[in-house]
Each structure stands twice: as structure tokens, then as C-alpha cells.
Amino acid sequence: MAQFFKPSRRAKPQPQQRHQMAQVIALDHQARGIVRTPEVRFIEGVLPGERIRFAPQGKYDGILIERLCSAEQRQTPPCQYYQTCGGCDFQHASMSLQRRHKQQVVSELFNKFAQLQQLPWQTMVAAQESGYRRRVRLATHWHAKRQQLTIGLRQRHSKKIVSIDQCWVCEPAINDHLPKLAALIENVGLGRQLGHVDILAVQPYPLILLRIDGVVSDSQRQDLTQWQTQHSVQIALDDGQAQPQLLVETQQKPYVRSIDGDPLYLTPGDFFQVNAMVNQQLVERALAWLAPNSNDTVMDLYAGIGNFSLPLARRCHQLVAVEGITRMTAQLSRNASAAGLSNIDAKTLDLLQPQALQQLSFAVDAVLLDPARAGAKVVAEKLAGLPKGQRPQRIVYVSCAADTLARDVAALTQGNYRISRCAVVDMFPQTHHIETIMLLEESE
Ligand SMILES: C[S@@+](CC[C@H](N)C(=O)[O-])C[C@H]1O[C@@H](n2cnc3c(N)ncnc32)[C@H](O)[C@@H]1O
């Protein structure tokens, strides 16, 4: 049969003459270096002040070929997998540069989207630089010929998996179990059926959540049950259809603790904040800025399983919590009951729907907003337009996406609010991800 030439789908190496020299002038919002030659290009792994040789790629990108000098703020990436793993993209910068850059990005976005030049910055909410992640999702690949399983994190810009047995930013409870997983799955014979694996550093035992396609036999269940007892972990199975199930349903439900020590029970798959120490400080900061007292009615929007709701309810008269996922609202209510709190009214509403907001009275003393990346546009526009006496005096907005935060805060400041405090929250050190907390108060 005739053989036709098929070009490789891999990016071709750039010919030598196309390489260009440039000085990195700044970092973009994803912590990539910006060069101008004169066209603007974005290059990963480089820092402002560094002179580099790079290969242009596509219309806007470049690939670093050689660094001719190093910025003072460069550090040797501490993680052995840094060059290949796509997990942390900012390890080559000192912690002070990482944190300064995050604040700079928020300032730039507010300048651009909210026309606000000066923000009232407060001390950053930050804790340890490594060993902070209490949940991680691992990718897996089953080599049928070798009957071997690879577990790890995705390579940068690739579907390939970097096999890891330690993750520098994960909590020790995760790293204790990560190296044992491949052998467990191979021995139990679930390699072919395995999708991803989540490890959660929760109480009373670390939880390993296996995404399995197809049926798990009784003998496989027995093997897994034996293993979880031997290694003091809990295993849960997720078939992608129904809610993940603990292998032994009679065992105690997993939980994390609120800042007051109340257990926040969760079902595998429920959202909880990734960085326990930063979360502790974040909730404390939100409480300090919202300053609830025992006569106040407070609203916690995007409440999850009650991370902010329970501490707020302990300090105010009445707490209205709103969450979009029914299962999590029910969990929040159970968590409130377990903590002996009877002043929480938990509702399930889609806060992106204007008509859903008609079911809420915003004549409360304070509101906490903690939306997902999409932000809280509909809520912000509603709050911005409410007359005095029917709106909260204080709003604390916790955000994981500075662009949607700037958009929503612009709506609030064009209404009856002004920004009185803000701080960067370094929830994900060693990565470019930015969280922010902002206090808005009635301006008249
Ligand atoms: C960043 S998490 C914060 C959860 C909680 N405040 C915490 O600290 O753990 C955002 C929460 O908003 C919920 N959510 C996302 N979109 C929503 C929507 N349209 N309406 C209501 N809740 C939503 C998610 O289910 C999630 O629990």
C-alpha cells in the first residue's frame, strides 16, 4: 500500500535564524514575561530585567531558548518536577516578587475595569510557601502492554502525565499516600477502569476518591477495604453517575474544621478551601471587616458547606446562607445543627438568575460574597441599586478571579458603595493564581 507523508502533530523546532533577543519588560496576569521586539510576545519562565533568546511561536507567544542573565528575584525552583509538571508556574520567582506581582495585577485590573487608580491595600493574607494544599487531583494512565499505572500531574501544555510520588505544595497527609497508590490500584486490578484520583487531607482520615468506570467487584471492594484499614485512610468511589460513595458507608463522614473548631462535614466532591492556614486567616479577616454583632442580620452568599456561615452565625443574630447546589445547602444545614446553631436559614438559589434574588431581602446589616470565578454580577448590580435602609452597610467580597471582581466592584462603586479596604490572599503560593478580599461600605 502507498505510504503518504503525514506531518508530525508536534510543534516543529524553530530554525536558529528565527530566534530573537529581547529584554523582559514586565509580567502579564498569568506571570508570563512580556517582551517587545517590537511586537509584544508572552514567554513563560522568565522575569523582568532578564535578557533572553527566544523562538517566536504563533502570533503572540515565544519559547525561551536561553537566558543570558538572571533577575535578582529569580530563585531555583524548589520542586524537583518544576521543569515538566504543569502544576506550579511561578516557582522561579522569589516569594516577595510573587506577592508583589499579585497585588500589582489586581491594581491594574481595577484601573482598567473600574477606573480606580488607588486601592486601600492592607496586609496580605498569607501563610506557608509549601506543603499547603489539602486537596489534589491526580491524572492517571494505564499502560495495557506493561500492565502498569502512571499517576501524577499533567505536563505543562500537554496531556502527558508527569509521574510524581511527592508534591512540594501538598500537605504531608497527601504525600504520605501518593507513592502507595499505583501499587494499590495495580494489585486490586482497577488500573484499566481508573479515571482520576483525588486525595483530600481531611479528618478523621485522609480521603482517597477513585473515579472508576464500570463495576467494582466484591473481591476488589474487600481488597480496598482491607487496604484502607491498614493505611488509616478512607476510600470513596465515584462512578461519574451518582454522588461518590464511601467504600464503608457506616464510617464517619469526612470533615474539615471551621475556624471555631466546628466540624464542617462534606461529601466527596463538595467545595472546600484548598489552603487550611490561609483559609483560617481569610475567615478571620472577613469577620474583622464585617464586624457582626449580636443584633445583626448577615447574609453569606455562595456559602458552600458553611466555611464562613458557621463562624458568622456564632457572632450575629441571624444568618441567611445561600448556595447553588442543593446537596451542599443541605450539608450546610446539617453542619449548623451539629454545631448547635439554630440561627442559620440556608437556601438553595442560583445567584446568577435575577428572579432568584427576588426571594431574598437585602435589608440586612452585612453581606459576604464568595463566588466562583464567574463572579457575582447579578448580585452586585442588585446591591448597587438598592435604596438606603434596604441595603447592607458593609459588603465583604472574597474573589478568586480579579477581573470579575473588578467588574462587580465597579458596579458597586457606581452605586452607593466605596472600597474601604482590600488585601491579596495568597491561597496558592508558587502559582500565578490570585485571590482577593475587599471591604465595601455605604458611601452615604
Ligand atoms: C468559591 S466557592 C466558596 C464556598 C464557601 N464560601 C467556602 O468558603 O467554602 C463558591 C461556591 O459558590 C457556589 N456557586 C457557584 N455558582 C453559584 C450560583 N450561580 N449560585 C449560587 N451558588 C453558586 C459553589 O457551589 C460554591 O460552593
List the helices and strands and how they pair.
Elements: E1 20-23, E2 26-27, E3 33-36, E4 40-43, E5 51-57, E6 61-67, H1 95-114, E7 135-143, E8 148-154, E9 161-163, H2 172-177, H3 181-188, E10 194-200, E11 207-212, H4 218-230, E12 234-238, E13 245-246, E14 255-257, E15 263-265, H5 276-290, E16 297-301, H6 309-315, E17 318-323, H7 326-338, E18 344-348, H8 354-357, E19 366-369, H9 377-384, E20 394-399, H10 402-414, E21 417-425, E22 435-442
Parallel strand pairs: 4-6, 11-12, 16-17, 16-19, 17-18, 19-20
Antiparallel strand pairs: 1-5, 2-3, 3-4, 5-6, 7-8, 7-10, 8-9, 10-11, 12-13, 14-15, 20-22, 21-22
Helix pairs in contact: 1-10, 9-10
Residues 271-273, 302-304, 307-308, 323-325, 328, 350-352, 370-372, 400 line the site of S-adenosylmethionine (SAM).
